[in-house]
Amino acid sequence: MTAWTSDDLNRIAAADELEMAPLRRNGTLRRPVPIWVVRDGDDLYVRSFRGADGGWWRTARASHAGHIRAGGVDKDVTFVEVQDDGINDRIDTAYRTKYGRFSGAYVGPMVAARSTTLRLVPR
């Protein structure tokens, strides 16, 4: 698998939102939706605010492929499902740290949606 460059990681992590466009079964991209993105070390992670009911998340989970745009970075990515609680604990902290300035009405659901955690891997 390809790794992120330091510049890509810094630019994407500094962005408030990431535009997510998962690949549909028919090979076309869904319309991009803005979502929150966090960094843990050399990895980037996203979660679905609506949990498993999120349309973009269901598409991403089915295809494991899509396109992202944030901080001036445009990349095709692979979505890797995350099950590890240790990583999810760090991602919870990253969401609270990065987005804590927003109401708990937003951060709370992101932390609670840990079953929807996806790692973004550049292609």
TrEMBL record:
This is DUF2255 family protein. It comes from Streptomyces cellulosae. Pfam families: DUF2255. InterPro entries: Split_barrel_FMN-bd (IPR012349), UCP028498 (IPR016888). It comes from the Bacteria.
